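Narrative progress, year one. The postdoctoral researcher (J.K.) led the effort to move from monomer predictions toward full complexes, under supervision of the PI. The following entry was the first complex the group processed end to end, covering 607 residues in total.
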Amino acid sequence: MKPPEILLDCKNLFFMGPKGQWLLDNVSLEVKAGEKIAVVGPNGAGKTILQRHLSGRLKAKCGSVNLLGRPIEEVSPVNRAQTMAVMSQSEHIEPLLSVEEYISLGRIPYKQQLAATENLSEIERAISVCGLNNFKYQTIQTLSGGERQRASLARAIAQSPNLLFLDEPTNHLDLRAKIDILKLIRELPITAVAVIHELALLADFADRVIVLQNGKIVADGPPRQSLSKKIVWDVFGVNLVDVSHPTSRKQFQVFDVLEQDINL
Amino acid sequence: MIIRRFPLSVVCVAAAIILGLTLPLGVASGGLDIPAKTIFSVLLGSDLGAFFSLEPASKPMTKIIIDLRLPRMILASIVGGGLAIVGVLLQTATRNDLADPFLFGLSSGAAAGAVLVITFTGDFLGIWTLPIAAFVGGLVSAVTVLALVTRTIHTGPERLVLAGLAVSFLFTAIANYFVFAGDQRAAHSVVFWSLGGLGLARWETIGFAVLGLSMLISFCSLKRHQLDALLSGDDTAHSLGINPKKMRIEIFIVCAFATGLFVSLVGVIGFVGLMVPHLARAFVGPLHGALLIVCGLFGAVLVVSSDIVSRLILAPQELPIGIITAAIGALFVIFLVIRKRSV
């Protein structure tokens, strides 16, 4: 069997924070086509910095990042934008843009190459995938937090990337909107790397979880393996309790600060 | 709430019609009112004029129309359109609603340049002396501001406002020092360059303004998509393949140079670059392809009509045009403040 294609890899990344602490401490990893990866860790563990290195937003001072086998600095910005997209959190978006206009920005990397109709159909597709048909002609400033996150996602999808980075896509969302957006990303036929704080929602989203602590990868594997009781306690200082749904028997993980186990 | 956008063609045609009506009005009105017949007779030339049985205009009348009023109106259109476009570019680059072409301390730089020349050298380059001195002065201040900004650009575009303010005060101090140190003619110069006026419009120097506008138009047509990308925030712009920092510096340089050219001819016509982009966005939205075209037209209409008002309000005396645009602009900003609060 052919091994899965490596979209992106980084080797021996180091990055020092403003207080002299390591935010990336010898980080090496590979992102294979089709994976849904969650990057987790406590605040200040280096998740966002790692994502900014991988997406080329920050230039690696020590270590290397390769996109499809080529050093990312050597990939032209347009090629990079056609290969990967970033959905950033809390961006200052021009409030008067309509949702459709905002999502259409995702086609900027293709303006020189493709006809307007082709770009338009990609925009329409992104709008309907994210369920924004009813919001097309509203301005960004009138959207709720959840709708705004979906518009951001649609903008990134409109870029037709192979690889999608998401920086805390569930930030500021209510519980239902969190589940909805993770489900939406899960079902996209592209590779996704997401920085996420919601440990409880991970199992439904990711098939690989990378745990960062003080800039080091302390676990990297399937969710059950990466988020073992020991790692969760060591890294986050919380207890992990496995429970099953009383009727459906579906397995859940509960994260709690109490020392004693909960009996259900 | 569904957003309403007007079709670009409709807005453009409407603005072009208004401009087409105000331009002849601008040629006709002023200290000396010129009847429409005379204007047509001059514009059509003696042969065609005779064909339409128009009386040939007198020599001085022809001179006023051809050498003074026409270049004045054309300069007003170019500068108005140009300043409005600069306003859009800077508001996009700084993502600040209050950014405007005079953010770079250009006005005080230009005034200081002009005052220095008047005080020390006199008209050693003839008709070009004042424009060139003002241009160089404006550019020196802009380069100072840009140098400050590029050193600190990672801290965000807000620095531009601070740097502009500081440099502006510095050059104002220099200009005022020379006024008080001696030459009284310099005082008039300070007023001209800080309140603006189209009185220096001549065919010989209009090339300055044309150069400024052509720079802006070529930059905008090449970079309009990159400009759009900046509207989505820096991280997203980077994700779209645009380097926001580099883009911002390019915008600042083009804007500083173009504004420097405009200021050298007409001084500071404030608030055009601040007001027109807001107005135009309400019609066609914030994407640059349509916005820049509409801004160019609206800006031209605003400056041409303000110039007409400035010549009529205290006729035969001519009011500095900056007073008119500042009055309209201040009311506009008050309106913005009230509206923003209610949202």
